[in-house]
Amino acid sequence: MRLGFLDSFNETALKVANEGPFECLELRGVEGWIEDGEQRKAALSQLYDYGLSVASFMVLGPSIRTTKDEMPGELDKLGKLMDMANEFGGAVLTGAAPFGYDPSKTLEENVAMYKEVYSPIGDLAEKKSVRLAFENWPGGKGPFGENGNLCVTPEAIEMMFEAVETPFIGLEFDPSHFTWQRIDEMRAVRAFMDRIHIIHAKDTEIDDDRLEWAGAFGKRWWRYRLPGFASFDWQAFFALFYEAGYEGDVIIEHEDSNFEGDKRPLGFLLCGKFLASQMME
Q: Theoretical Cys-Cys bridge with 63: which of 28, 29, 59, 100, CB 3.0 to 4.6 Å?
């Protein structure tokens, strides 16, 4: 398992990665590279100079509400992103997707919409040998909100994988989103191990006193933290992956308000040091 973090492509990110125990990056904001070969060439050169590779590109997949008329354009864009992923050594295409959930329909009906849109995307991924990985983020409106993410609970994920069976579509597994939903993270890992293409390392801190007073529908009883600053058992988590022969990457997703601004690089470095100690390598 290689360790990296999610950030935009910039000199600061490269220097932080070089300073810490990092071998790779997940990059966002790269859509402009699709038509710019010189920019891609320059990025590859800089990554080489720092001894880094690209684990993944964070790019949102099409909505499950995508129409048949819109699909050719979506497939063309995804095809170019897949070519770019291969150019960067087989990067995974990731994102909190697929969005477009319709609360007026049943979960089964939403999965049927997903199947209609993502079956040809799965075929394209197989053709180009590029993996797609959905992050299980419920979205700002909570699980199954208007136009939200479909990939948010093990129940929904299981139905999605049964609807589109290609192993080239899988998960960017982030345990933090299951923690505050009170979903068993380890059980989900065991259930979907063969479809986990990349790991998002992020933790969730639960304020039990606040939860008991405000209730599950209250506010501010949980918040995202960097691994090492909350209570998730990362060593036990990684043990499951080692036992299964997992060969993917581990990417820190930094959403910790205690390490904002000038302290953001420090957060990456401290978290990287902690995770390296838990990964048993």
A: 100
